Request: fold
Amino acid sequence: MITKENWYVLFVLVAKSDKLCSLLTKKGINAFIPQIEYYRRDIKGNALKPLFPGYIFVKSEMNQSDFDNFLYKLGEQKDGLIKQLKEDGVSALRDEEIEMFNKLLNTKGILEMSQAFIEDKQAKVIEGPLIYYQDHIVKVDKHNKLAYLDIEFMNRQILVGLNIKCKIK
Reply:
């Protein structure tokens, strides 16, 4: 029997998110802070920053009640945890959200920069996670090397690093 992997989202104090994520990992939990690779003009190179500051994602085969019990038993160790994001008592991400993050994030939880060129005023993605979501690009900021998607998660528009290259003829 194949057990389903659930994803949970924890809302935490930004200053304590790394420490809490490390604690969960030490306890055998697959916890990570999703990161976005983006272009920094000041260093003329790419850097990483949290995709959703103040949120820790958890992948687990635990069902909701087992995960709730696990968090409860952490007691004082879970310093910085504000709440588990839940809707109708369930915080596991929906299957379509899990599928989206599986396509966008690499195995380390990083949303890598995509590569594209502009053709007919549209970004044509040639490499990177945006290849799956090219039709969802609503705006391209060439100056800051970002693409805005028409997909929202936690009431935030998803931004993806996008490097525009000259088209090779």
Remarks:
- Residues 64-74 form the longest helix (11 residues).
